[in-house]
Amino acid sequence: MNEYEQLESNLIVLPNDFGAIVNDFNVTKIINTEASAALKDLLHRYKILIFKKQALSDEELIRFSTYFGELFTTGKHNPALGSDKKTSPIVYIGNNTEKYKQAYLGHQEVFRHSDHQWLEKPSSVSMLYAIEIDEGAPDTLWTDMVAAYQLLPKQMKERIADIDIITFNPFFRPFGEVRSKYIDILKTVPPGNTFPHPLVRSHSTTGDKILYLHEAYEMEFKDLNFQTGSLLHHHLVSHINSINCEYSHSWEKDDLVVWDNQSTSHYRTSFDGEISRVLKRISIAGSKPIR
Ligand SMILES: [Fe+2]
């Protein structure tokens, strides 16, 4: 059995081939190039890989993440979560700031997004490792944005084929302020550099077409007037909400979930701040999205 067959024989594939649980895989073991390629292949095929019951030091988590590519970094001119005080590639996503002083995002709702869409080169892959999950901590909900594209009517695919989406960097706004908003650029120009990306992008490895849409940040469609653009955004969001292309992950401590950050977006609801929910995130560098 080669590395790929071995990994595949231990998989539980989730409905609609969206997500797979990889059983009997200890992510702390050092793997060879073929196994690393097999892991990436599985990720591209199923878009989300779930590894249960992993006991990982930071070093082990970082080493495992590098099997998927180089670590994501960004500079102060184009900031991202945690880039202000970056000493480690691990960013704490959590609300228990008494215990985890460096944790971000609190317990507010985090609208559907993929990581770093406002940057020139958004992450290709991200992963979360659950370290403290109280009962009642909410799921993370992933959406298959390849399916979201495929399920669009033909006329809509033609209509949006050449549109670019501009996402304004949220880290030039006061931290914690929710800025999920279609912008009227004639009235407000949010601060920071912008990098327009194709609204329909192609996956850098699989070539799959992806609906590259989010609801989390200030954004606009380039060269469309406010009324046309905001209506189109609303229409596309309604489409995504109307189709069944999601996976909801109910967290347990020591879960490690890796996702293809090109072909998926993710969401979590707000929750009671007394419930502790803390995860470590690592993100992997990506390339400039192409049409
Ligand atoms: Fe995220």
TrEMBL record:
Q: Name one GO molecular function term.
A: metal ion binding
One of the record's GO cellular component terms: cytoplasm
* Keyword field contains Iron: yes
InterPro entries in the record, alphabetically? AtsK-like, TauD-like_sf, TauD/TfdA-like
Single biological process term from Gene Ontology: sulfur compound metabolic process
Lineage top rank: taxon: Bacteria
Please report a single Pfam family linked to this protein.
TauD
Q: Which residues form the TauD/TfdA-like domain?
A: 14-282
What keywords are assigned to this protein?
Dioxygenase, Iron, Metal-binding, Oxidoreductase
Which family, according to the similarity comment?
A: Belongs to the TfdA dioxygenase family.
Protein's name according to its UniProt entry: Putative taurine catabolism dioxygenase
Taxonomic lineage per UniProt? Answer: Bacteria, Pseudomonadati, Pseudomonadota, Gammaproteobacteria, Oceanospirillales
